[in-house]
Amino acid sequence: MITLGVDPGTALLGYGLVRGDDDPALITYGVVETTKSEAMPARLQRLYDAVWELIREHEPDVLAIEQLFFSRNVTTALAVGQARGVVLLAAAQHGMDVFEYKPSEVKQTISGYGNADKPQMQEMVRITLGLPEIPRPDDAADALAVALCHVQMSRLSRRFGVSGR
Predict the structure, then answer these.
(1) What residues make up the domain containing 121?
(2) DSSP assignment, residue 53?
């Protein structure tokens, strides 16, 4: 199984691809960057095109994406929602199954603690994937955490017949 994890955002959209069901291995990770000087439609087009190309190139089986949580900053929440929309559209157009996880679910699954901080999460991603250093930037590490969360949740589902999705 190949899982594409996405940490949505309009300035930086993090992505991470992992292969495997029981012992996940890193395929690639990174970010798609847009600038505030670009009009929002152009930014969304760039994000869509980049995700479309990742899906075309790596042929992931599933997309794992963080659920939108309500932010105090409504403008930021709306922008993240727009980024999520273009990612979900690209996945749907490729016929991919999509799994959404709350930030606390990702933290609980990866670190064993639903309120883990960013450095704890990044270190667990590094250890789980056997990497020499923490993936940078943070958005890429967050996307890998979402992908690893899905791998672990899928493993639980197969072993115990548990399905929360």
Answers:
(1) 2-160
(2) H
For residue 11, report the phi and psi dihedrals to the nearest 5 degrees.
Answer: -80, -50
User: Which one from 23, 61, 100, 139 is the annotated catalytic residue?
Assistant: 139
Domains held by the chain: number: 1
Please indicate whether residue 61 or residue 160 has the higher confidence score (pLDDT).
61
Residues 141, 14: Cα–Cα separation, whole Å? 8
Catalytic residue, chosen from 7, 38, 123, 142, is 7
Q: Is 61 labeled as catalytic in the residue annotation?
A: no
What pLDDT does residue 156 have? 75
Residue 165, domain member (yes or no): no
124 is a domain residue:
yes
pLDDT in tens, 91-141: 999 999 999 999 999 999 998 887 888 899 999 999 999 999 999 999 999
CATH value at residue 127: 3.30.420.10
Q: Is 142 a catalytic residue?
A: no
